[in-house]
Amino acid sequence: MAEVIKMPRMSDTMTEGVIVEWHKKVGDKVKPGDSLADVETDKATMELESYNEGTLLYIGVEKGKSVKVDEVIAVIGKEGEDYKAALSNAGSAPAAENKEASAPTSTAAPSNNAPVVTAEQLGVTVIRMPLLSDTMTEGKIVKWNKKVGDKVKSDDSLADVETDKATMEVVGYTEGTLLYIGTPEGEAAQVNAVIAIVGKAGTDVSGLVASHDNPQAAPSTGSKAENEKAASPAAASQAAPAVTAADDNGRIKASPLAKKIAEEKGIDLKQVQGTGDGGRIIKRDIDSYTPAAAAAATPASAGATVAAFTAIPGTEGYTDVSLSQMRKAIARRLSESKYNAPHFYLTMEIVMDNAMVARAKMNEISPVKISFNDMVVKAAAMALKQHPAVNSSWINESIRMWHHIHIGIAVAIEDGLIVPVVRFADQKSLSQIAAESKELSGRARNKKLQPNEFSGNTFTISNLGMMDIDEFTAIINPPDSAIMAVGRIKETVVKKGDGFGVSNIMKITLSCDHRSVDGAVGAAFLQTFKKYLENPVTMLV
Fold first, then answer.
1. What is the rounded distance in angstroms from the CA atom of residue 394 to the CA atom of residue 332?
2. pLDDT digit string, tens, across residues 197-240
3. Which of 462, 466, 445, 469 is nearest to 410 (CA)?
4. Which of 66, 357, 446, 508 is buried most deeply by CB count within 10 Å?
5. Cα within 13 Å of Cα(310), Cβ side
6. Does the annotation count 23 as an active-site position?
7. Average pLDDT, rounded, for the chain
8. 3-98, what's its fold?
9. 353 carries an active-site annotation
């Protein structure tokens, strides 16, 4: 019986996906694990794998088109089988009946007034600033990888864009000539703003640019001066290296996702054996790749700058530092949090003597080194399980009680602060939390986190104890209702019996959103947290 393939939900915020490329055509044999298509979601470009075996009988969405989650995109069944009954049961009509609906459309949204000219009339594709993270409002063009007049292939990287979370690539998913660049390097564009136009060489797009409400630069005509301006020395010096193998055009055959992961890991695609159709390199090939020789030395992280200021005695001066997208996002979101959420603070002292002994013993057998912060994460997760009111968010005049516990761990990086997330922390052992935290923190500092790794937190921990800070208060990280600020472990003289002794004391401060968490609720949560941390064996049962 024919099986209907629907657009899956590939991220928690995904509502639709764009078919970037079909890797099978109607009539092709399909096996479980085969890559059917590359799908662009709101977070990343991912491979859609088949879980069925048979023949691809029907494709319902053309390359470059978007489709809502749970809508039919394909049918797999026996060769020659009538698939229309399966489509009817799924509430979809055959492709032939939807021919008009699947006609090529532009990515450009028309203005309120009738446009002077449309992308359809010119046969061009409008490239807009994509939404690359759930909190992104604008993206800064770090580098254009193409200049006006360059030929563009569907999987070419057009530009590197700095968002509020990371620096990511913008792929055009279309072929032609780059006719227009709307946002110069170093400048920012709002999400969905026109940043480029791709089409047939020689096409005049000035009317199209004028018809869009786009505050960017005037359209490029492809003149020598404008081409030189669009193609900065940095872009030219960092052009993609030439490849020696693969398809008829001399390009290595690899999915966009595989290329992205390979670049992040510093893997040369020429050294990878593809297992996809026709030797195409796919995600699993990169994940399973083991280099034959030691990896080359890691280059300095991109975008790192060192500013040296020489003060001349007796002179005044200053330097204005432009804001990164991450710093802008931190300023915006934490300002909103501070002024919209009525904060209150609860401080408690934790006696860490037992925790220090337990940690030393656990690290004798643990496969990874367990830190005090890992113990804090575990204790907080278990306490949240008993006090779900703290594991909540204030959303649209209602309180959302989360059924899962995802702990965000604030990590300081060069550009500011990012919060990688340990998911289902209450269900993980201390050694699992330690391994995951170490991996996420390293990827955060190298700007290699994927969107799903820094979103979805339900509670956040900020620890400055390793920097000798005794105690501090933290601003709530939206959409959480609370954040825990952790200070250092400090030897303190305390009364013991009839005399005095030394104990190791750690101060923690819980910042709470009073709209969703009351003082007594926050205090009860801290009492439970204290019991776990002062008697760590209770976290192991």
1. 18
2. 999 998 988 888 887 644 443 334 333 333 333 333 333 333 33
3. 462
4. 508
5. 1
6. no
7. 80
8. OB fold (Dihydrolipoamide Acetyltransferase, E2P) (2.40.50)
9. no
